[in-house]
Design goal:
The chain is α/β, with parallel strands linked by helices and about 350 residues long. It has a domain at about 1-115 and about 295-355: 3-Layer(aba) Sandwich (Rossmann fold), CATH 3.40.50.300. It contains eleven helices and 15 strands. It has helices spanning about 35-50, 105-110, 125, 130-145, 145-165, 170-175, 175-210, 230-245, 265, 270-290, 310-320, and strands spanning about 1-10, 15-20, 25-30, 65-75, 80-90, 90-95, 100, 115, 215-220, 255-260, 260-265, 295-300, 325-330, 345-350, 350-355. The strands form three sheets. It has a six-stranded antiparallel beta sheet with strand order 2-1-4-5-6-7, with helices on one face. The chain is globular. About 40% of the residues are buried.
């Protein structure tokens, strides 16, 4: 999938934006606060109906305006073109795909997979397991057709079982366990398979960029793996009744990053951490290109930050080879070591966009 036209209205500091991006690499350059990140944010909003840097949609409005609109035409893998749009006004959000209103945001997310690489991406290493589980869930939502169904079943069983545990009702707790175990075991199986594939896809990048470190990705299940989930639930039930919530299961799992035997966030410098996260997200992108109905669109904010020119060149070469559509921001055009004909270039000043050659 690639965005072939993009229109943005009343979004942050952007003027009326109407651009035609390339199917491959798009470079957005301009001074700080000119509106570079805002365009990435608008694309993200189009896919997720939320921001990656604001907590409320009304914070995205241009001052003095009461509604915003982001609209795009996207070209799908089969060559068909589909119009997608999100309009927000206070109290109402309208999402349209292919001329039809869409009420399920999961349908929009599946149709329009989008991923961000920015300073916040290092949260994948620095924040807790919840962030890493979300990372896995997002990827599997797009590459494994059955995953969303298993997750919905498990989430319902988890909530109902937790309610029973909080009441101290052992009979009702046991009643929800077959569904809890059945769906949870499938989630665990699919996550383990995906992490193994991700580790394989990421290994060449990590070897080239961080060869001095022994980087390992592994999946830690939410229970002792020498037991089945059913056995773990049976063993933990007494403690869970005392605690009032489920202590075992894939909701307590984690994706673990290690560098030379240590947790990566404690071993690596900030620049090395950024390389690790970029490698993982590019590995994820390669799996999406291979397996998903529509490969992800990448939003890369301030690529040059903390990366030397050689590393920037390597990242750009991989992006070109991946075939994914990418939107990359920088303050200085010269900081992107890419021939002019290998990308489409957009300059932004005071929120106004123009294509340059």
């Amino acid at each position: 999938m690639s965005v072939t036209s993009l229109a943005v209205r009343n979004f942050r500091n952007l003027a009326e934006v109407d651009i035609s991006p390339a199917a491959g690499i798009n470079i957005i350059f301009g001074a700080n606060a000119a509106g570079k990140t805002s365009l990435l944010e608008a694309l993200f909003f189009l896919a997720r109906v939320r921001s990656f840097r604001a907590t409320r949609v009304d914070q995205l409005l241009t001052r003095g305006e009461s509604s915003l609109l982001v609209r795009a035409t996207v070209c799908r893998r089969d060559g068909s073109a589909v119009n997608v749009g999100v309009q927000w006004t206070a109290g109402a959000t309208r999402v349209r795909v292919g001329g039809e209103d869409v009420r399920s945001l999961s349908r929009l997310a599946r149709f329009f997979p989008i991923q961000v690489i920015n300073a916040e991406s290092q949260r994948l290493l620095l924040d807790g397991p919840k962030v890493r589980r979300s990372f896995l869930n997002w990827a599997l939502f797009h590459v494994e057709h059955d995953y969303h169904g298993y997750w919905r079943r498990y989430d319902k069983a988890l909530r109902q079982r937790n309610a029973a545990l909080k009441l101290g009702d052992e009979r009702l707790t046991k009643a929800w366990e077959p569904e809890f175990v059945s769906a949870g075991a499938e989630i665990d199986r699919l996550r383990r398979s995906y992490v193994a594939q991700l580790s394989e896809a990421t290994a060449p990048l990590l070897g080239a960029w961080l060869g001095e470190e022994d980087i390992r990705l592994s999946y830690r299940g939410g229970w002792a793996q020498e037991r089945s989930l059913e056995e773990a639930v049976e063993e933990a039930r007494v403690r869970e009744l005392e605690a009032g919530h489920s202590l075992v299961g894939p909701h307590r799992a984690d994706l673990v990053f290690r560098a030379s035997g240590m947790e990566a966030q404690h071993r690596l410098s900030r620049g090395q951490q950024k390389l690790l996260v970029i490698a993982v997200l590019l590995g994820q992108t390669s799996l999406l290109v291979r397996d998903a109905n529509e490969p992800a669109i990448l939003l890369i904010d301030d690529l040059p930050a903390e990366l030397d020119e050689e590393r920037r060149q390597q990242v750009l070469e991989l992006l070109v080879k991946s075939g994914a559509q990418s939107f990359i921001t920088c303050t200085d055009r010269a900081s992107i070591p890419l021939p002019a004909d290998k990308a489409r270039w957009f300059h932004v000043e005071h929120g106004q966009y123009r294509e340059v050659v």
